[in-house]
Design goal:
Elements (H helix, E strand, L loop, with lengths): L3 E2 L14 E3 L5 E4 L5 E3 L6 H9 L10 H4 L45 H11 L4 H6 L1 H9 L8 H28 L4 E9 L5 E8 L9 E9 L5 H14 L8 E6 L3 H9 L3 E4 L1 H13 L4 H12 L7 H14 L13 H13 L7 H15 L2 H16 L13 H13 L1 H10 L8 H24 L6 H17 L3 H17 L3 H9 L1 H6 L14 H15 L21 H5 L8 H13 L14 H13 L6 H10 L7 H13 L9 H20 L1
Parallel strand pairs: 5-8, 8-9
Antiparallel strand pairs: 1-2, 2-3, 3-4, 5-6, 6-7
Helix pairs in contact: 3-6, 3-28, 6-28, 7-8, 9-19, 14-16, 15-17, 17-18, 17-24, 18-19, 18-24, 20-26, 22-25, 27-28
Length: about 700
């Protein structure tokens, strides 16, 4: 069959027939590149276009069409192979205009807008603004999604700031809905210094209705200029909360901070409940037991203080100044001496100079030396240690070296060292290294591991994002019970330290929360609870506390009892199956989770609708009904909801600081305060969206 060129007055290099020949009957066409024969009945070119897109994915470029699209013939009349032909995008061959789709008129998750994409890459992936304007690959990728990137980094910054405003508007509408339904919030805040040596305050808003899993929202970072007093801190907090249409004195139930003196004073000046971070209390208890200086060290320090500052070396002078600053707290001082951070670091520095000042220092140093034998030599680790690890466990386990300023890393190091005890002993024998551990040292390591493991899982329970002051009580009771049941002097000392530190920071409202969560459990523990550590208010005191909370936070308008937010129905696992499992078959973490589930278990009841005629009398009536197996009344339900917004720790601001440190790194230290605030808010927002998927 013979094929011939298609000629027409309107024929040009962009026509599909410039790539095909056609027979005389006009029913078939032959590709000039691969000589494949295709049908073209009635002059249809659909099949020809599909062939070009599928087989020859590129077409003639615009600029080279005039020179290369026309086929050349030799003397014999044959058409030369267009192997040197350049190509152009397939969209240029489209003859029909694309129809508008429904998704073109709104942003979808499958194809997010330019603002969402850019802000997400900036906040989550840490891509600088200038990268979007300099990277050719990013420009090409955005063009494929029909997005055109601006040419200026300032324009990229404006996109991120605008997206932060959109997220802020969405959050404000959600906050208005919660407040209209009678809900309230708690706030947690803390101070942070960036790599650019700028100070910020991070604020987080807490409520079960804000997010299904995280139950908090990041309100951003506030720049601190100059010194920060308690009065100035309250002023800055009030300004930021007003931006989200929240009244600090009426809509906030409690504030959660660490234990520095400025935060303490701020908590006293505010009418809200002030919950000091319980995770910091656990940290201080660990510091009291494991990093306490010996009497010899104290005497040597007291002798040094008698010397003049001019006669001291620089290191000792700085150390002494830190000691004086920590041991003599000032009411308006911004240092966080109660957190144990300064004291903990100072203790570690001094321990390196005088190792005998700290308990278990010698045995921990011995473990570190053993670990470094294999850490610093890949050959010894692979040929001697890991062969025994593989034969015993079936997979490789690496030794863990601790960070001396983190007690949790000490727990991980000791745990892994005890796990690989036999393998390490065999490897040292093969290496002919005399590094023996006595039975007493192994016993001390076991005691140390048991105590640190209990404290570690307790801290993890306290720092969960769904934790409350009720679950904090359950976690601390569990830790104290475990430590009391362990027959060792170390566990008893740690138990006493935890009691002391927790007693300093526990709110009396935790007992009210336990009562409102489940009255049966509250009175069932009457004979077993330690009232000195877990004090309980009397019935009249509890009524006064509930009334004071309601009068400060509510308007007492008549509302429907079945509104969202006034009563929560909890879906708890069947506890009968869990309680049937013996204690020796459950790990400590599983036992703690079981205790928390028991404490949160409550009957599914609806609140009664009453009118605020005599609040104190109505609360007493509802308490009487609640204690005798009745319903949790309308006002008790509101109080239970408000107290449920209080987290036991200030961990969320610390997490925000970690994210802010990732954003404002050494390569991006020149970020403005507004940009850092926006990126911090967007990062938390997108992380929560990712968790909700």
């Amino acid at each position: 069959m013979e094929f011939e060129e298609v000629t027409s007055k309107s024929q040009n290099s962009q026509s599909v027939w410039s790539r095909f020949k056609r027979n005389k009957e006009k029913t078939q066409a032959q590709c000039k590149v691969c000589s494949k024969v295709l049908k073209c009945v009635g002059g249809s070119t659909t099949g020809l276009l599909k062939h070009l897109k599928a087989i020859h994915k590129k077409f003639f470029d615009k600029e080279d069409n005039s020179a290369t699209s026309a086929t050349t013939e030799d003397v014999s009349g044959e058409v030369s192979r267009p192997s040197e032909i350049t190509y152009a995008p397939a969209d240029e061959m489209a003859t029909k205009k694309k129809k508008a789709k429904l998704t073109d008129f709104y942003s979808s998750t499958s194809k997010p807008s330019l603002g969402v994409t850019v802000s997400r890459m900036v906040s989550l992936d840490g891509i600088p603004f200038s990268t979007f304007t300099q990277s050719e690959d990013l420009k090409r990728l955005f063009q494929k999604e029909d997005h055109i990137l601006p040419k200026s980094p300032n324009s990229i910054r404006e996109i991120v700031l605008k997206e932060k405003e959109n997220v802020m508007k969405e959050l404000i509408s959600k906050i208005k809905k919660i407040l209209s339904d009678g809900g309230k919030f708690s706030i947690s805040y803390d101070e942070w210094t960036s790599n650019h040596n700028r100070r910020y305050i991070s604020i987080n808003l807490h409520s079960k209705q804000l997010h299904d899993t995280c139950r908090f929202k990041n309100l951003g970072l506030i720049r601190i200029h100059g010194s920060m007093s308690a009065e100035k801190c309250i002023e800055e907090l009030n300004k930021r909360l007003q931006c989200y249409e929240i009244n600090l004195y009426k809509d906030v139930v409690a504030s959660i901070t660490d234990g520095c003196s400025m935060m303490k004073k701020t908590g006293r000046l505010l009418p809200t409940f002030h919950q000091q971070c319980i995770a910091h209390a656990v940290q201080l208890a660990v510091v009291d037991i494991f990093y306490k200086r010996s009497p010899i060290a104290l005497d040597s320090c007291s002798e040094q203080e008698e010397d003049t500052d001019e006669d001291m070396p620089l290191v000792q002078l700085v150390r002494l100044q830190n000691e004086r600053r920590v041991t003599i707290p000032n009411e308006d001082d911004t240092s966080d001496e109660e957190d144990g951070g300064v004291e903990f670091t100072r203790e570690i520095i001094e321990s390196q100079a005088r190792p005998t000042e700290f308990r278990y220092h010698d045995i921990l140093s011995k473990i570190r030396k053993t670990i470094k034998i294999f850490k610093k030599s890949p050959k010894k680790n692979e040929e001697y240690l890991q062969k025994y690890v593989l034969s015993e466990f079936g997979m490789e386990y690496e030794l863990i070296l601790d960070v001396q300023t983190r007690w949790s890393s000490v727990a991980n190091m000791v745990s892994r060292f005890l796990m690989l005890r036999n393998c390490i002993t065999k490897a040292l024998l093969d290496l002919r290294i005399c590094f023996e551990f006595s039975q007493e040292e192994w016993r001390l390591l076991s005691e140390l591991h048991g105590v640190l493991e209990t404290v570690k899982i307790t801290t993890e329970a306290l720092c969960q994002r769904d934790a409350s002051i009720l679950t904090a009580d359950v976690a601390m009771k569990f830790a104290i019970k475990k430590l009391q049941n362990t027959d060792s002097s170390l566990s008893k000392e740690m138990c006493a330290a935890l009691k002391k530190r927790y007693k300093e920071r526990r709110l009396l409202e935790a007992s009210v929360m336990q009562y409102l969560a489940n009255a049966d459990t509250y009175f069932a523990n009457l004979l077993t609870d330690d009232f000195e550590l877990f004090p309980r208010p009397s019935s009249n005191q509890m009524c006064e506390m509930i009334v004071a909370l309601l009068r400060r936070t509510s308007d007492f308008q008549q509302r429907e009892p079945d509104q969202d937010g006034y009563h929560e129905t909890q879906t708890v696992r069947t506890l009968s199956q869990s309680t049937s499992i013996q204690d020796n078959q459950m790990s400590n973490k599983e036992e703690l989770n079981l205790e928390i589930q028991k404490a949160l278990a409550a009957p599914n009841q609806s609140a009664s609708n009453t009118v605020d005629e005599n609040l104190s009398s109505l609360v007493k009536v509802e308490m009487a009904l609640w204690e005798n197996g009745g319903q949790r009344g309308y006002y008790l339900t509101i109080a239970h909801q408000h107290l449920g917004t209080i987290p036991p720790t200030s961990v969320e601001p610390e997490r925000i600081f970690s994210s802010a440190g990732y954003i404002c790194n050494r390569l991006r230290t020149r970020l403005s305060d507004e940009s850092l605030d926006a990126i911090s808010v967007l990062r938390t927002h997108y992380q929560q969206l990712r968790m909700a998927r």
